[in-house]
Amino acid sequence: MKCRVCRGPAVIDLPRHNANFCVEHFLRLCRNQVAKAIEDFSMLSPGDRVLVAVSGGKDSLALWDLLVELGYRADGLYLGLGIGEYSDVSGTYARAFAEERNLTLQVLDLRDTYGYDVPTAAAATRRVPCSACGMSKRHLFDRAAIDGGYDVVATGHNLDDEAAVLYGNTLHWDLEHLARQYPVLPARPGFPKKVKPLVRLTEREMAAYCVLRGIDYQVEECPMAAGNTHLGYKAQLNALEATSPGTKAAFVLGFWDRMSPVVAGLRAAADEPPDATQRCVRCGAPTLAEACAFCRLVETSAAHAPVPVPTPRRRGRR
Amino acid sequence: MKCRVCRGPAVIDLPRHNANFCVEHFLRLCRNQVAKAIEDFSMLSPGDRVLVAVSGGKDSLALWDLLVELGYRADGLYLGLGIGEYSDVSGTYARAFAEERNLTLQVLDLRDTYGYDVPTAAAATRRVPCSACGMSKRHLFDRAAIDGGYDVVATGHNLDDEAAVLYGNTLHWDLEHLARQYPVLPARPGFPKKVKPLVRLTEREMAAYCVLRGIDYQVEECPMAAGNTHLGYKAQLNALEATSPGTKAAFVLGFWDRMSPVVAGLRAAADEPPDATQRCVRCGAPTLAEACAFCRLVETSAAHAPVPVPTPRRRGRR
Questions:
Q1: Is A255 at the interface with chain B, CB within 8 A?
Q2: Tally of CB atoms within 10 A around A210
């Protein structure tokens, strides 16, 4: 197995590129794919101050590493979600990554600061954990970026993540979410610009990137997410990809290339702030209600007795 | 297992309706679903003369039966495609169905009339058999309808067929085909109106309909289609449906309900005849070239030596 670029010994095969790569040229490919995504979608400008949403998993640490490699000024923010051992270990990896590279990592713990954690919020709201978790993360990353004067929030959503979300939105023809699914969301009053520079790279490529760059990361899946629909969609897309390499990239990138212009009018409407003049009475975030959804979640969850966390399961056991 | 309607003994469970049905009420459900499709999409008017595209399989025979049951004047056209024993048996079922019910069935044999068959056309054009077959069928059904003064051609495409085609078009974001995928195509110069009244019913429901109505049909799959991408998509959709009953119907009907209006502009453009004034010098069909694609296929294929046909395989063996 030889590298397509230098004919030296290859360490990874990428069927969707119909090629193999050595360490050096695989890492270069990853950087090039991120640079291409950033350019194609006007994600970042050279002097931008970037806040990376860091979970301690492969995607967010690879993203942070890649942005620094590409010369961007990127700090990290790690949220302690309180998902037992899973969160403890994730935080350790995030801190170690930043310390070893002398990068700035902010840490914000939900229970210390707001008096709740994700398992408790899920129980208190009687909704799936990913709902309370996602909402908390969006609110707190938005707020940290605005308060810290960052130009943009970067998240580690990769091609597999985007493909699975697009698959679900498409199976249901959920036009509102289809219109919003784009790798860049522009800034608007009270909200920072948000970008997803890893959308041209797969989960497997990000895992290989971390291994080859010597980045230690949380390899467990979040125990709260086990068995969710999103993971089922990923399995289906992997089956398609195995039969026909490149299917995932064609699905996601083809959507943005050809379908997004068709739903552009819908996206413009979806991007409009609901009421730019109304602000949450507690935190000042834009909201349609007196208090924003996050502040209401905090109120409900902080009053609830803490609940236990499922034990993490290793990937592949499910 | 009791019928949802009458609480009598049920013969079939329909997970997507979360209900079981007896013979009488299952057959009524099928008629109602066809009537609803016809009404929702303005497929047929009461006095219309309908030409049913009859293959001898469950879908086309059930369609013919349902249209007659619903009071429409429907004749059939069976094309002898020359796919060996598969075609011979299919033709026998089509003829028997018509004779037993005293219905009018036209029969047109490709080799007798045009000097070729589908396996030979596939070999001569070096394309997948479904390509030459589909093109031949579209041309000949169009022509028979125009020549016979029929108002509309009805085909037996069911929910699974539409779902698989939509799935493929969506995975590739093939906007041209997405814009054209609709259960009604209006008449335009040289082309009849075309409708798909079975789009609200599944393959399994159509097989059950035939069994319960005593309709004998070709149960083999076309030996030329074995292993094609379309069948792979059907398998993936069946896996989704098993996990989440109703997924296929939501995907297809949701597309027409919510996405079709978004791509309506594209559809209008796709429906435009390429050049309504230009006609094939041989057969008079609308075309962009001197001779239409069908007449060119006939010329290429009739000059080619006949090729053998694969042996039919039973469903479930693949």
A1: yes
A2: 20
Taking the CA of residue A83 and the nearest CA in chain B, the distance in Å comes to: 28
Sites in chain B below the pLDDT cut of 50: 316-318
The residue of chain B with its CA nearest to that of A256 is: B173
Residue A45, burial from CB neighbour count under 10 angstroms (0-12, 13-18, 19+): exposed
Q: Does residue A269 belong to the interface with chain B, where contact is any CB pair within 8 Å?
A: no
Whole-complex ipTM: 0.85
Q: Is B269 on the interface with A (CB under 8 A)?
A: no
- Look-up: residue for tokens 């799935």? B167
pLDDT of residue B305: 85
Q: How many domains does chain A have?
A: 1
3-state secondary structure at position B204: helix
Answer whether B167 touches A (CB < 8 Å): no
Residue B1 lies in a domain: no
pLDDT tens digits, one per residue of A13-37:
999 999 999 999 999 999 999 999 9
**Are B171 and A251 in contact (CB < 8 Å)?**
yes
> A175 contacts in B (CB within 8 Å)?
258-259, 262
* Interchain proximity A172–B236, CB inside 8 Å: no
Report the candidate in B66, B76, B232 with the shortest Cα–Cα distance to residue B145.
Answer: B76
Query: Could you tell me the CA-to-CA distances from B289 to A187, A207, B192, B303 in Å, in that order?
Result: 52, 53, 21, 21
Q: Would you state the pLDDT for residue B274?
A: 56
What is the distance in angstroms between the Cα of A176 and the nearest Cα belonging to chain B? 11
In a domain, B309, yes or no: no
Q: Which of A172, A236, A266 sits opposite B254 (nearest CB)?
A: A172
| CATH number for B167 | 3.40.50.620
The answer to whether the CB atoms of B254 and A173 lie below 8 A apart is yes
Q: Would you say B198 and B53 are in contact if contact means Cβ atoms under 8 Å apart?
A: no
Note whether residue A195 is domain-resident.
yes
Give, rounded to a whole angstrom, the gap between the first and last alpha carbons of chain B. Answer: 31
What pLDDT sits at residue B244? 93
Q: Is residue B78 part of a domain?
A: yes
Which A residues 275-314 touch B at CB under 8 Å? none
Please tell me the predicted confidence (pLDDT) of residue A318: 37
Q: Do A175 and B243 touch (CB under 8 A)?
A: no
Question: Is the distance from CB of A214 to CB of A305 less than 8 angstroms?
Answer: no
**Residue A230 phi, psi (nearest 5):** -55, -45
Please provide the size of chain B in residues.
318
The pTM of the full predicted model, rounded to 2 decimals, is 0.89
Q: How many helices (H) and strands (E) does chain A have?
A: 13, 8
Beta carbons of A236 and B236 less than 8 Å apart: yes
Distance CA B301, CA B117 (A): 8
Give the residue carrying structure tokens 């923010």.
Answer: A77
Running DSSP on this structure, what letter comes out for residue B1? -
User: What residues does B49 pair with on adjacent strands?
Assistant: B73
- A232 to chain B: nearest residue by CA? B240
pLDDT band at residue A317 using 50, 70 and 90 as cut-offs: very low
A171/B250 Cβ within 8 A: yes
Structural domain for B213, as ranges: 12-302
Q: Does B266 touch chain A (CB under 8 A)?
A: yes
Q: Does B259 touch chain A (CB under 8 A)?
A: yes
- Please list the alpha-helical segments (H only) found in B228-275: 229-243, 247-254, 264-271
Are A289 and A277 contacting, i.e. CB atoms less than 8 angstroms apart? no
